[in-house]
Automatic annotation (TrEMBL):
BPP domain: residues covered: 28-353
Pfam families: Phytase (PF02333)
One GO MF term: inositol hexakisphosphate 3-phosphatase activity
Annotated InterPro entries: 6-blade_b-propeller_TolB-like (IPR011042), B-propeller_Phytase (IPR003431)
Organism: Taibaiella lutea
Protein name, per record: Phytase
SUPFAM superfamilies assigned: Thermostable phytase (3-phytase)
Top-rank lineage group of the source organism: Bacteria
Amino acid sequence: MKKLVFTIGILSLFNVACKTSTKGSTEGKNNDIDTLALKPSIVTDQTAYDTDDPCIWINKNDTSKSLIIGTDKDANGGLYVFDLNGKIVNKVTDLKRPNNVDVAYGIMLNGVATDFVATTERETNNLRMYSVPDMKPVDNGGLDVFADETDKAPMGIALYTRLSDHAIFAIVGRKTGPADGYLYQYKLEDDGTGNIKGTLVRKFGKYSGKKEIESIAVDNEMGYVYYSDETYGVHKYYADPEKGNQELSLFATTGFVSDHEGISIYKTSDSTGYILVSNQQKNTFMVYRREGNPNNKNAHDLIAEIPVSTIESDGSDVTNIHLNNQFPEGMFVAMSNGKVFHYYDWRNLQEMIDRNKP
């Protein structure tokens, strides 16, 4: 299938950019942003130090009360909780360089189904976990990761829920590691006291050695895990440790200025949709087919490149859930320089993608 790189005329892109207005705090925005790039609907309040990665928690009882939880990466950093208007409504502070964050639903703790977020705490070599929405610790002080390694420094984190038995796993990346077995996967469950413990179930994942692996994303329905090998490409494996450690695909190897960063997956059905990867230094997101192409489900062709106002985005997340009237078909959230996160109306991204469908 022919690769179609997204280019857009000044007039048509201007029309898309003008469909949304920026609300919330505008502090920290770069005044030199290309005025033709897609504009966010909302820019969040600023954090204290350095935003890095967000996740979206869906409130299943009232989606308009869903939350965005993002890391503030510093030796005295934390997790910040934002409402759908971009306002800070809660936070966890004094974390030692929290890097990436992800969310999972319904782990059983003391017999109660509990939603939680997990973040890597790089300077303590721990995985920290908090119940959502109250942000209470449920990790008994932290889960030690890469315990058998000298080089630890955990960075990336993705939570995988196996649909067959609802078992929940953490897939964790680090600052550096071997050419194979770079990622560690832990099964998460109640330790008997209402806290989460982790059991190492496998080491897997190829690494180019060029830079580092930070962004990790899991597709629960399809059963795959993707991770960005910075300056090299995106790797694809089975998320279920029982399906083996064979690499299924390496894609997104061209068109990047430098770093491959945040990965997020927008679902148009149980088996179709888009994989969005941050082209960090170019301030664009590269869009690939989630389902692969008709002849090879592991061949993910580039179908669009979307310019955004987000500056040097490390992390992102996306949902297809109707949140409110402002985000009726879901929201795309991306970290930006300036200590903020940007909220985008998914409809604007979809319009850009539709113009490029072959």
